[in-house]
Amino acid sequence: MVLVTQVPVAVAKAYSPGHITGFFSTPDPHISTTDPKFLGSMGAGFSINKGITSTVKVFSSNEKNYEIRLNGIPNFELKVSNFVVASYMQLIREPVYLSIEHESELPIGYGLGSSGSAALSLSYALNEALKTNLTKVQAAQIAHNGDIACRTGLGTVISEFTGGFELRLKVGGPGIGQVIKSELSTDWCVIVLCLEPIKTELWLDKSVTNENKHSLNLLGRKMVHDLYQNQNVGSFLEMSYQFAREYHLDEGKCQNPINLLQAEGIKASVALFGHTLFTLTERDKVRRIVKLLEQFKGQLLVCGVDNLGARLIRRND
Ligand SMILES: Nc1ncnc2c1ncn2[C@@H]1O[C@H](COP(=O)(O)OP(=O)(O)O)[C@@H](O)[C@H]1O
Ligand SMILES: CC(C)(COP(=O)(O)O)[C@@H](O)C(=O)O
Questions:
Q1: Closest CA to 243 of 218, 264, 261, 220
Q2: CB–CB of 247/207 below 8 Å?
Q3: Cβ contact 44:23 at 8 Å
Q4: If you count Cβ atoms within 10 Å of the first and of the last residue's Cβ in the chain, which end, N or C, has fewer?
Q5: Structural domains in the chain?
Q6: Ligand number, closest to the Cα atom of 43
Q7: How close is the Cα of 197 to the center of ligand 1, in Å?
Q8: Which ligand has the shortest distance to the CA of 77?
Q9: What distance separates the 2 farthest-apart alpha carbons in the chain?
């Protein structure tokens, strides 16, 4: 039997933005390693100001145990969160019962980085609530390791850790990967139309042949190089669309809405990995774009760019 006190001995809360990848590349590592800190992807994308808030309540208990709810509902398949909790349980000696709540503004599986966002916000909140005293980078590395181990993301955690419009120049998790961050002004708005989810895990492993993987990696790497020379949102959107076409994501559910926007001179692409259209646009064009997209069945999100990256929002007091 688990004995748990009624009043939490500690509470902490953290937030991580969601994230959209426009293109990426997974070149073979220079050294052969299985250490997830050195694995990940190069690429480009941006963090959005919709994300996941994780709250951790710690109770005294006679054994180590936990429960996780997602938007109030228990028993979701939350493997990345389980990985993060297991990592912290190994770091502490005393038995505790953890009550964990993820509040998600992100639909799951649509290429908005929900897995990374859950892992990162949870890792920050656990580090604070359990007083494990890891640095921000170390806590973010645990989240990155979880995303890599579960095959739910590669470069998502380091991007959400950094925030802004990011160019990932060198593969690796937080503290290892090299990222150039540009802050975008609040005049930039993000419009997202979520049409159908894609399991990142399946697409990373099975959607492309080895030969295709090689050419996608070359293309992704070339795009990183080209965007580095000419860092602007328009080029990013164009490259992202070209990249999505290589995955044939332009032919699925996103085909009609993208064609419609392009016919109106509006650049748009597909968020990796989801049947999810996205665009970045100046504020004065938002109403027009929303009007055009409203006719399609799906979840329409209008938000901004998060320039701050993941953060603790309630200290352990
Ligand atoms: N809020 C969440 N809390 C815990 N785990 C989550 C959460 N959101 C997603 N996950 C995990 O990540 C998986 C989806 O990841 P993925 O296919 O990469 O989608 P996304 O593109 O939204 O990141 C889910 O099956 C689940 O295991
Ligand atoms: C594209 C992806 C491999 C997955 O992203 P998501 O489905 O949003 O978790 C990302 O982690 C990246 O490396 O850029």
A1: 220
A2: yes
A3: yes
A4: N
A5: 1-317 (3.30.230.120)
A6: 2
A7: 11
A8: 1
A9: 64
Question: What crossing angle do the helices spanning 210-229 and 233-246 adopt, rounded to 10°?
Answer: 170
| 274 Cα nearest atom in ligand 2 | 7
- Ligand 1 center to 4 CA (angstroms): 29
List strands edge to edge, sheet with 299-304: 269-270, 274-282, 188-197, 299-304
Which SS3 state, helix, strand or coil, does residue 288 take? helix
Structure tokens belonging to residue 10? 């500690």
- Report whether residue 41 contacts ligand 2, using a CB cutoff of 6 Å: yes
Task: Give kind and range of the element (H or E) at residue 290.
Answer: helix 286-293
Is the shortest distance between the CB of 24 and ligand 2 below 6 Å? yes
Whats the size of the chain, residue-wise?
317
Q: What is the pLDDT of residues 78-128, one digit of tens each?
A: 899 999 999 999 999 999 999 999 999 999 999 999 999 999 999 999 999
| Cα(15)–Cα(55) distance, integer angstroms | 9
CA distance readout (Å), 122 to 78, 93, 112, 201: 12, 19, 17, 21
Distance, in Å, from the CA atom of 313 to the CA atom of 52, rounded to the nearest integer, reads 12
Best probe residue, ligand 1, of 20, 105, 114 (max atoms within 8 Å of C-beta): 114
Closest ligand 1 atom to residue 111 Cα is 21
Whole-number Cα distances in Å, 19 to 44, 90, 257: 10, 29, 21
Pairing of strands 178-182, 165-170: antiparallel
> Rounded to whole angstroms, how far apart are CA atoms 179 and 255?
31
Nearest residue CA, atom 3 of ligand 1?
A: 118
Give the percent of the chain with pLDDT over 70. 95
Give per-residue pLDDT as tens, 170-187.
Answer: 999 999 999 999 999 999
Euclidean distance between CA atoms 82 and 130, whole angstroms: 16
State which H helix or E strand residue 199 sits in.
Answer: none
- Indicate whether this complex's ipTM tops 0.95: no
